[in-house]
Write a structure and sequence with these properties.
The chain is an all-alpha fold. It has one domain (2-209). It has eight helices and no strands.
Amino acid sequence: MTSDKTSAFEDTLAKIISVVYHPLLIPLYGLLIIFLSPTIFEYLPLAYKKILLLIVLLNNVLIPLSLIPYLKYRQLISSWFVINQKERIIPLITTSIFYFITLYIILTFKIPVFIKAFILTSAVLSSIITVINFWFKISIHSVGAGALIALVIALSVKSNDPLTLMLIAVILLAGLVLSSRLWLNSHSPKEVWLGFFLGVFTSAFLLFFF
């Protein structure tokens, strides 16, 4: 009985972590990390921060989420969580399109290049995941976890500030996310680790060189 209760608790916890750390929310979390970090970005005008967050929230969170009920109604997906590899194709393509729409809008803003590079990174990662998904089911949660670690490291290097607490936090969160995907049997270890390293290395390359 106790074992069953423990297992149920762990299942619930893993599901909560997966929802809170949903891939659609990663760009939003990334912007919050940039804006709240003790760097020059902290001093950007509040109006700019609100506008950027609103654009990402609308284009990359609310609109993609609003399409899920339609796809479910049209029987293009069988689950609200879009677990099936083939069923992921349409949501991924749609999400990638909206990322590039966001990028196009953001590029017109007079804001630091680093923020534009982060949005570019999100769009590129989404496109790479979409292409990979035709042959292999990679963990998108893990890609997002790796991307946020690379973001904090890039922020740290470019601002010449260790950002120790922030880096520890994103590493611990990444550990929880990867563990939750494995616990729920949503992905194999190979799918999780490939996703994680894709997120880390692609993000690091784009954030350091653009």
